[in-house]
Design goal:
With about 300 residues, this protein is α/β, with parallel strands linked by helices. The chain contains nine helices and eleven strands. It has helices spanning about 45-65, 95-100, 120-125, 145-150, 170-180, 195-200, 205-210, 230-240, 270-280; strands at about 30-35, 40-45, 75-80, 85, 90-95, 110-115, 135, 160-165, 185-190, 245-255, 260-270.
Length: about 300
């Protein structure tokens, strides 16, 4: 995750074209040319932990809902990336979440992956090419991109939205559009609570407010009853509850080797079964450890 001074997120298209091979500098590029001749996203190990949970959840949903929603089970992923990750700490390549999602034992009826960077779109298109998979290029918060998603995914489908924003780039208005569009929508979101707190402390309240859906987000971090992070989380959860999302839980994704929360991996649904699936998917971590939810 970027520091406060880098809050205006480096978009993927700002990565130098000459970035080839594993990152070697103290500030490695977001994208690297990999051993397959395509682009991969350079990440830290905590991203692999998140990918592990997402893969488990996709597997559980695909298996558990295929008979109840035949032909109507869809996966939408914003900020999808190139479909492959380069782990800096271990110098290893692993599948990205789109490749994992389409590779589950019982695949979804259809998938829509979207990313802003044309290099990510090109690499991902080659990695997930198969019937029922749509890869779109565009800004996740733009009306044009959302209209294209809406034209592909049936309104009466059971939809999982995976919004894995890297900074504070998933606007509440985007989430609200999809909530209103799809009555059977489950939200699997990267909720960057810690990042939002740091952004507000650095004066970036505009972007934090757009992500949180609050006109004066600084007011949220001055409430004495809660810590700043808990206050932001409480606000977001209450906004979801107002939309009928009464079943919400999350697990903290921590900085590798430290007891520092980077963001929440959050599941919100109108159906209790989705929360059961999420709890099962996150009950055991990638190293066999038992995961803990965040208390509210």
């Amino acid at each position: 995750m970027q520091s406060v001074t880098e809050f205006e997120q480096e978009r993927l298209f700002e990565v130098p074209e000459a970035a080839v091979g594993p990152p070697k500098t103290t500030k490695p590029p977001v994208l690297v040319m990999d051993d397959e001749g395509h682009w991969s996203r350079a990440v830290s190990n905590h991203s692999a932990e998140k990918a592990y949970y997402v893969r488990r959840l996709a597997e559980i949903i695909g298996t558990g809902m295929r008979l109840k929603w035949p032909g109507k089970l869809w996966w939408i992923e914003l900020f999808a990336g190139p479909g492959r990750l380069y782990l800096r700490e271990t110098d290893a390549y692993v599948p990205g979440s789109p490749v994992e999602a389409v590779s589950v034992k019982h695949p979804f009826t259809g998938y829509v992956f979207a990313d802003l960077d044309p290099r990510c779109v090109s690499s991902l298109s080659q990695r997930v090419e198969r019937p029922g998979v749509h890869v779109l290029q565009g800004d996740a918060n733009s009306a044009s991109l959302l209209d294209r998603v809406a034209s592909i995914v049936p309104r009466d489908a059971l939809v999982v939205l995976y919004g894995d924003q890297e900074g504070l780039d998933l606007g509440w208005d985007t989430v609200k559009f999809l909530i209103d569009r799809y009555p059977h929508l489950d939200l699997l979101l990267n909720l960057p609570v810690a990042g939002a707190v740091r952004a507000l402390a650095a004066g970036h309240d505009g972007k934090a407010g757009a992500m949180l859906g609050h006109e004066a987000p600084l007011d949220l971090v001055t409430r004495p009853a809660l810590s700043r992070g808990a206050s932001l989380r409480d606000w977001y959860w209450r906004k979801l509850a107002a939309e009928g999302y009464d079943h919400i839980n999350c697990v903290p994704i921590k900085l590798q080797g430290r007891n520092t929360d980077l963001y929440d991996l959050m599941l919100a649904s109108r159906a209790s079964k989705a929360l059961e699936f999420f709890d099962k998917a996150t009950s055991v971590g990638p190293k066999g450890q038992y995961a803990l939810s965040l208390p509210m």
